[in-house]
Write a structure and sequence with these properties.
Layout lengths: L6 H11 L11 E2 L2 H10 L6 E6 L5 H7 L4 E5 L5 H8 L6 E4 L4 E3 L2 E2 L1 H12 L5 E7 L5 H8 L8 E7 H8 L9 H7 L2 E9 L4 E2 L6 E8 L1 H4 L5 H12 L6 H8 L6 H10 L13 H18 L3
Parallel strand pairs: 2-3, 2-7, 3-4, 7-8
Antiparallel strand pairs: 1-10, 5-6, 8-11, 9-11
Bound molecules: S-adenosylmethionine (SAM).
The site of S-adenosylmethionine has 23 residues, from β1 and α3.
Length: 303
């Protein structure tokens, strides 16, 4: 059984299988098929691409992507939905469905998932890795954030996410949404909101608006950072106290590694005012700051 996954098609499919959409899994299916096509089109898929899709659902986006990409590795946590999706792919040789949680924990993508992607990439000369998905709201942040620290590193991320999250990803300094997540993404990628979508394009309707985000990672941007893990952790540490002055936030984030006078020295060296706040600094300035912090910590306690 395979067809255009309109609202009535999905409702019939679910009724026949005796299942209902599960809120706990973030099951809001995209029923505007023009938007499903727009997600795939934005990702600019080609035969070189191995796509990871988190949240197969009933395979509406998967099927479209399989016609354009080299291979689609699609992950579905729900054991009742996975067999329904598998029937949709019966004729497709380039789809691998894994019925499991895409995350090992909130800080890691599951290794089985990454291994499946690596195996498919090994089969395609010059393979590129893309995440393209209508992500479940509750895991969208850890999926995107962890993927940008992963091997393989994604060439592109195109995803439907909660609008507020999309706004945090593209936020600029001095705005209320600018924080550790904006910086983690913008330090290594260009990001833009492609489309804001009302709740009515999903079944069942979520309580929030959504947006399609297009994230284009760049090695040139990423290579500016000496140690990405250190940078990520330091930004999280500093932005926990986003309203604090930079000096206090930095003292707290480097506790037991730098003294207050080390921090004062550093700020003076970088000509940063004591009373400036991290949220006022541009991504480039924060990369520079983190690099100085890292070098100073290593001088005090060489690893
Ligand atoms: N791709 C379909 C579409 O576009 O309509 C479904 C998208 S729906 C927003 C998200 C899907 O992700 C659901 O089918 C849900 O069961 C699945 N899901 C939720 N959490 C997951 C997780 N941690 N790992 C894998 N799949 C998950």
């Amino acid at each position: 059984m395979s067809g255009r996954q309109t609202l009535s098609y999905l409702q019939k499919r679910f009724a026949a299988a005796g299942v209902k959409p599960q809120t706990r899994f973030g099951q809001n299916f995209l029923i505007d098929l023009n938007l499903v096509a727009l997600i795939a089109k934005t990702a600019q898929l080609s035969a070189r691409d191995v796509v990871l899709e988190v949240g197969t659902g009933t395979g509406s986006l998967t099927t479209i992507m399989a016609a354009q990409a080299g291979h689609v590795v699609t992950i579905e946590i729900d054991r009742l939905l996975a067999p329904i999706a598998q029937q949709e792919f019966a004729q497709l040789a380039n789809v691998t469905l894994l019925n499991q949680d895409a995350l090992r924990n909130k800080n890691h993508i599951d290794e089985i998932v990454l291994e499946a992607v690596r195996a498919r990439m090994a089969e395609i000369p010059g393979a590129r890795f893309k995440l393209v998905a209508n992500l479940p709201y509750n895991v969208a942040t850890p999926i995107i954030s962890n993927l940008l620290g992963c091997d393989p590193w994604p060439n592109r991320i195109v995803a439907t996410i909660q609008k507020e999250l999309a706004e945090r990803i593209v936020a600029l300094p001095r705005s209320k949404d600018y924080g550790a997540l904006s910086i983690w993404i913008q330090c290594q990628a260009q990001a833009e909101i492609v489309r804001v979508m009302p709740a009515s394009v999903f079944w069942p309707r979520p309580n929030v608006e959504s947006a399609i985000i297009d994230i284009r990672p760049s090695r040139v941007l990423r290579d500016r950072i000496g140690d990405t893990e250190f940078f990520h952790n330091l930004m999280r540490g500093i932005f926990i106290h986003r309203r604090k002055f930079l000096r206090s936030a930095l003292v707290a984030a480097t506790k037991d590694r730098l003294s207050k006078s080390d921090v004062d020295d550093l700020l003076a060296q970088l000509e940063l005012e004591e009373n400036c706040r991290a949220e006022q600094l541009r991504v480039d300035d924060l990369i520079d700051l983190a690099e100085h912090v890292r070098i100073r910590i290593n001088k005090i306690a060489p690893s």
